[in-house]
Amino acid sequence: MKVYLNGKLVPKEKALISCFDHGVLYGDGAFEGIRVYNRLIFRLDEHIERLFETAHTLMLQIPLTKKEMKQAIIYTLKANKLKDAYIRLVVTRGEGDLGLDPRKCKGRQTVFIITDKIELYPEAIYKKGMEIITVPTVRNLPEALNPQLKSLNYLNNILAKIEAINSGFQEAIMLDTLGYVAECTGDNIFIVKRNELYTPPQCMGTLRGITRDAVLGIARRLSLSAHEHVITRHEVYISDECFLTGTAAEIVPVVKVDGRQIGTGKPGEITKLISKEFKELTKRDGVKY
Ligand code: PXG
Question: N or C: which end of the chain has fewer CB within 10 A?
Fold first, then answer.
């Protein structure tokens, strides 16, 4: 496997960065996770846009233009001869000293691109549905560390993931500080009630997920009402269907939340329809290489 590191392709074993890189020392950097389906890079422009938006707020200068970044991704995919893949795109502040001050990172920012496979959950989860819980760790406050930022500081999510794992679950609902449902540790959440879809609005400590946007688009095309609306845990418990969305996880049916069965306890019809339509979309919506 070859990894793109600062303009060069290097073997995985040689893809190493400095201990003084502020991405390592402080999580000071931005990232994206992107999927490739049969040589089509799904929503590449949207992912690049989001990376540059995160970098803008972090005042992190990306040493490549958007076009060069796309070319670098394609270059890496081709070098690894991948048809189906998961791309991890990372930009860090680069090498600095032992203080927080980002101005001390005087050299180049670090850019690396890993292209690999990813399988978050076994196939059975997609067929039978997942059981999840709500965890105590609340999602970061937007005014502290906005969940819209896909920064390298993912400890808020990792703490929640640890709580889920400690309780024997693979994924968890994180609430915002008001107690409304925000999202899961690495996915957005949707519920279905009386054939209408609901997902928390992005202002409530929720990442504007690209898969979430794709699902909202699918719902619109299918003439299903879809609302970006605050959701309580009660509303999740009494929903007819529930599912999660994310680049890595794709569409995951949820059949039990905090011990409450959702709907029939099996993946719902709308969830299955959305999954099918999403699969179709990935066959045509993307940048070909
Ligand atoms: N919310 C959060 C907090 C995420 O990290 C999503 C929603 C879904 O967004 P997209 O744009 O992918 O539809 C994400 C992204 C993992 C993992 O190992 C998950 C993500 C990123 C990196 C790793 O579960 N999810």
Answer: N
Residue to probe by mutation, ligand 1, list 51, 247, 250, 274, most atoms within 8 Å of CB: 247
On whether the CB atoms of residues 48 and 34 are closer than 8 A, the answer is: no
Same domain, 163 and 257: yes
Query: How does pLDDT run across 189-244, given as a tens digit for each residue?
Result: 999 999 999 999 988 789 999 999 999 999 999 999 999 999 999 999 999 999 99
Torsion of CA 10, 16, 22, 25, to 10 degrees: 150
| Nearest-angstrom CA–CA distance, 138 and 151 | 17
Domain count, the chain: 2
> Looking at the chain, which runs of residues are DSSP E strands?
2-5, 8-11, 29-37, 40-41, 85-92, 110-116, 130-134, 172-175, 181-184, 188-193, 196-199, 226-228, 241-246, 250-257, 260-261, 287-288
Looking at the fold, whether 147 and 279 belong to one and the same domain comes out as yes
Is there a domain that residue 171 lies in?
yes
Last residue within a domain, chosen from 116, 134, 155? 116
Mean pLDDT value across residues 84-113: 96
pLDDT digits 0-9 by tens, 130-189: 999 999 999 999 999 999 999 999 999 999 999 999 999 999 999 999 999 999 999 999
Residue 150 a catalytic site member = yes
User: Is any atom of ligand 1 closer than 6 Å to the C-beta of 251?
Assistant: no
Residue 289 lies in a domain: no
pTM: 0.97
Identify the domain boundary among 61, 96, 116: 116
How far, in Å, is the centroid of ligand 1 from the Cα of 68?
24
Centroid of ligand 1 to alpha carbon of 188 (angstroms): 8
d(CA 213, CA 190): 12
CATH of the domain at 93: 3.30.470.10
